[in-house]
Amino acid sequence: MTPMLAVDWAYWQETLVKVGLGLVAVLLLTGAVVYLYLFKFVSFMQSRLGPMEAGPYGSMQLLAEVGKWLQKEDVFTENSDRIVFGLAPAIVMSSTFLMFVVIPAGPNAVISDLGTGIYYVLAMTSIATVGILSAGWASANKYSLIGGLRAAGQLIAYELPLVLAVVGVVIQVGSLNLQDIVHAQSDGAIFGWSGIGNPFIFTQFVGFMIFLIAVQAELTQSPFDMPIAESELVGGYQVEYTGIRFLVFFIAEFATAVGFAAVASTLFLGGWALPADWASESTMHWLGPIVISAKAVLLVGVVFWVRFSLPRFREDQLQQLAWKFLIPVALLNIVVTGTLKVAF
Amino acid sequence: MTSVTDRQKLQYIAAQAADARVNVELETEGMTLNLGPQHPATHGTLRIIAQLDGEQVVHAEPVAGYMHRGYEKLTEVRTYPQITTLINRIDWLGSFANEVPFILAAEQLMEVEAPERAMWIRTILFELSRISNLILFLGDMGVQLGAVTPVFFAFRDREFVLDQIEAATGGRFHPNFDRIGGLRDDLPKGWLESTKGSMDKVRDFCDQIEDLLLGSEIFQTRTRGIGIVPTDVAMQYGLSGPNARASGIDWDVRRDNCIGLAYPELDWKVWTHTDGDSFARFWVRIQEVREAAKMVDQLCDGLPAGPVMAKVPRIIKVPAGEAYVATENPLGEMGYYIVSEGDLTPFRVKIRSASFSNMSITPWLLRGVYVPDIITILGSLYFILGDIDR
């Protein structure tokens, strides 16, 4: 592996730098997404201004919120299972951050370029289910319990279409490695025309849509937000969480949104790369992170746009959507993709 | 028909049996979920004790009274002009509509009749308060189902209506404008034109809501077929207003039993729906907002000239007697039964508020539904807590 920077570092030094930079990038992106969409975009949708006081146009609002959460008392409910209750946010958070390990942001800007890249991402995101379920159980609250169980059912149901939607791309590329997927798109051509490469959003449009819908459900955003459902379950598995533990849940929620958007843009929108003849590889070292951030932030925008437009499904209707519609369509997509792959 | 106590007994037995069944057959324990008194879906402090089997409701019972303010008793120690201030707060989203039936009943006892202009202005304000109330319902239904945006549109567009109410009466929420024998004041200059302008905004809002919610497939799957109230059940439980009309009961006090208001002279339609489900209740209310906007336009155009106050003695003493007047309030039929003994204060006032009767159907309606449907049903039945706990 060539070094990311033009310095010859030991492996541990390089890893440390990569993890540190990765953490900073993820947190910055998460903060940007929260400010852009949760604070401002939504406010403009709802004919209000959003935060305006903290910093210019309220841009420091998130820091103020974080400061508030950090000051709060760390509350454990009386009957809660203290260890599990305390551990649950950490599990969710670690699932989120582990996901970023294999997402490439440039020719070398990836913490670990695993051969099973996309497989690893999907496996890591499933861990969050454990955290959410244990949060719901350990809170010793009926609303939390219902929310946690709903979340478990929902996340498992939507894990399947998510995986199946990815399979189409994997068949086309013939590799699970995310770098290979990126290169296949930037070097590809649409019917011999290589002007914009071959982003898989065109060939795998069905897969892209299923992926987005499943991501919406995995993130438990409306219309699939029954685990939280503030108007019925008051907050679901998060009811009893305050202060720093809630903050961890909050960061995890939005960082996961960024993560899934980054994965989606890697799989379907060409990832960090620009089409082969647009920019040289040396440019992409610094341009790549910007490109994938822009794509990811745009996709998160879609998530939030949907979230604040649609009412939510009922739990059984959501399961029906997953099992009776998304999974059959995804399977069909795999069959068609496979057939075409063999035919051409 | 069995009496109320019998029905309650049967219900209790059914609940116990269901509990036992849950325990024996599935070897699981039922769970009792307390929705409220502090819960986002209860518009205040309604409490619903729901026994669950998984996510299915086995038995649900509303517990009202957390916000009881004793209005019926308080009215007995207040003079008639003071009472309007009080009863304004019953249904706080459509305040003016609360005053009208009381004033009409008092006028009936005193044998005073308000001048025609006062009658028309009363009708305008009545319909404006209906619009401001139902607009909030239309937005709020979205929140109940998880769509956050419509309620902001509702608050935005309700402001246009509240502005008109404020310009005419001086109070945004609690106008306290109705007097025995007429109104406190005439309308300000230019008010009629601006009111008609705000009615256009209301119609735009209805279009928006139809796009955002009514046309949304998710909204339809959440509301269609949920909480069906058949016509006969609706009659048995004494549903009124939009809830009854959504069950196919073609009854509207404004059309069928109008006392002292200008409805007979207007061209409008009573909308009914045959389905009786949550969707129908929502749909009927949208139509009612549209009809109300149409009525306000007609009333503004045809407003007769003249005084707004009849000749009434300075100190109001209502002659001995009894009177009951009901009007079609935003939430349903609301009536006041006044018993007077010729004093400055009424001897007894019985308030028949719509939400209280409408809520009585919840135990029947909530049996066997899922937890998310509790919210849909409560939202679509649309109660205001002040109207339940008077």
Description:
The complex is a heterodimer of chains A (344) and B (390). With 344 residues, chain A is mostly helical. Chain A has one domain (74-343). Chain A has helices at 11-45, 61-71, 82-99, 117-138, 142-173, 178-187, 200-203, 205-218, 243-268, 281-307, 315-343. The two termini of chain A are 33 Å apart. Chain B is an alpha+beta fold. Chain B has a domain at 71-315: Cytochrome-c3 Hydrogenase, chain B. Helices cover 50% and strands 12% of the residues of chain B. Chain B has helices at 4-25, 71-74, 80-87, 95-110, 116-144, 149-169, 191-214, 217-223, 231-236, 242-246, 253-256, 278-301, 354-359, 362-366, 371-381, 385-388, and strands at 31-35, 47-53, 56-63, 178-179, 182-183, 321-329, 332-340, 348-352. The radius of gyration of chain B is 22 Å and the shape is globular. At the A-B interface, α5 and α11 of A face β1, α5, α6, α8 and α15 of B.
Secondary structure: elements and pairs:
The complex is a heterodimer of chains A (344) and B (390).
Chain A: H1 11-45, H2 61-71, H3 82-99, H4 117-138, H5 142-173, H6 178-187, H7 200-203, H8 205-218, H9 243-268, H10 281-307, H11 315-343
Helix pairs in contact in A: 1-9, 1-10, 2-9, 3-4, 3-9, 4-5, 5-8, 5-11, 8-9, 8-11, 9-10
Chain B: H1 4-25, E1 31-35, E2 47-53, E3 56-63, H2 71-74, H3 80-87, H4 95-110, H5 116-144, H6 149-169, E4 178-179, E5 182-183, H7 191-214, H8 217-223, H9 231-236, H10 242-246, H11 253-256, H12 278-301, E6 321-329, E7 332-340, E8 348-352, H13 354-359, H14 362-366, H15 371-381, H16 385-388
Antiparallel strand pairs in B: 1-2, 2-3, 4-5, 6-7, 7-8
Helix pairs in contact in B: 3-4, 4-5, 5-6, 5-7, 5-12, 5-15, 6-7, 7-12, 12-15
